[in-house]
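Please, structure for the following, as tokens.
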Amino acid sequence: MNPGHVVSADEWLTARKQLLIKEKELTQLRDELSQQRRMLPWVPVETVYRFIGPDGECDFAALFTDHQQLIIYHFMMGVDWSEGCPSCSWWADNFNGIDVHLQRRDIAFAAVSNAPISAIEKYRHRMGWNFRWFSAIDSKFSKDLKVTFDETEQAAQSMFYNYRDTDWFTEELPGVSVFARDDAGNIYHTYSTYSRGLDSLNGAYQYIDLTPTGRNEENGMSWLRRHDQYE
């Protein structure tokens, strides 16, 4: 790697302080955006969803455990897939160990996929992950949350994803959804984000963005492998 613009330490400090002004502005804007996100209205979840975990079938309320808030990562692993999506697997490498911290803020966390629970468990153990992961097979959950698309949608090459029509044609796409439960046990959908909205949830990307070369993804994410497949 060749150096970029080389300057003295004093010149570097001046440039760094100028950038710090922009970084602080971004932090303030992020705080404002987070406040607006918390003020979004809630939508009642009226469909009865069933999930399958390692211990068998359960209802939606069970995913909350004893908490009133729930974050779901929509993990791309289709009905007949033997492996999870490489990019979702990269995101999932950030999940181990976060549960205990989220629980202190009254938040439960889980991943949900359409693959059978047997395939999910086999892949989860292979990857060394310990976060909760449920199957939504035979459920409309992933389709209703706009991350799973049927053959008709794929054939038309027009799908509604990330709050707009796209010309993609694929079976599964990623996302994160947030739900809340009131004191009476009613469940509400409060937020979902997709596509580049997930970037800030990947710790590795945040570190990569600090480096001189940055993401350097002229060919997209073709460089990425599951963590046990790098040579």
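The chain has a mean pLDDT of 95. Residues 146 and 161 are 6 Å apart (CA to CA).
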